[in-house]
Amino acid sequence: MTDILTDELYTQILLDAVHQPQHRGDMLEPDLTTTTGNASCGDEVIVKIKLSTDKTSFKAVKWQGQGCIISQAHMDGMAAAVIGQKLLTVKTWGRPEVLALFGLTNISSSREKCLMLGLKAIQQAISSSNTP
User: Fold this and answer.
1) What is the average pLDDT score of the chain?
2) What is the tens place of the pLDDT at every residue in 103-122?
3) Mean of the pLDDT values across residues 49-70?
4) How many structural domains is the chain composed of?
5) Helix, strand, or coil here: 113?
6) Which residue did the predictor score with more confidence, 3 or 79?
7) What is the pLDDT of residue 2?
């Protein structure tokens, strides 16, 4: 997919994720919490993370926020993607991993911050913690 806004299947996936998010909501007693956003467009997310007993991997991720369809849908997808992953692995993820995760080969520069917001928030939570 080279133009995410014109691909009908991708658009349907985005709509489904926004209207039926699996990881949107609050979490009692999270191990990690962060708030981040894109100042240029107003997207914002609050991410709460529960870690495994040994504090090395993601057990659960919940988020709340507002913004464009891309940031919201991909926040939900990113929450799903990191569950079960090691923190050290997710710390190393970048644009190539996010594009691959969502089946994309490219995204317009104007939408890249929207796409990357979920990973940015999760990595920010990891970096601000005392976890390994």
Assistant:
1) 86
2) 788 888 888 898 899 999 99
3) 94
4) 1
5) helix
6) 79
7) 46
Per the CB < 8 A criterion, the answer to whether 126 and 82 are in contact is no
The DSSP result for 43-109, as a single string, is: -EEEEEEEE-TTSSBEEEEEEEEE--HHHHHHHHHHHHHHBT-BHHHHHT--HHHHHHHTT-S---H
CATH number, domain with residue 76: 3.90.1010.10
Residue 32, SS3 per DSSP = strand
Domain contains 118: yes
Which amino acid does the sequence have at 105? T
Amino acid at 10: Y
Mean pLDDT across the stretch 3-9?
Answer: 52
105: in domain: yes
Task: State the angle between helix axes of 8-19 and 69-82 in degrees (0 to 180), rounded to the nearest 10.
Answer: 80
Give the integer Cα–Cα distance in Å for 74 and 39: 18
Q: Which amino acid is at 9?
A: L
Q: Picking from 63-72, 87-96, 115-124, which range would have the lowest pLDDT averaged per residue?
A: 63-72
Domain membership of residue 50 as a residue range = 8-127
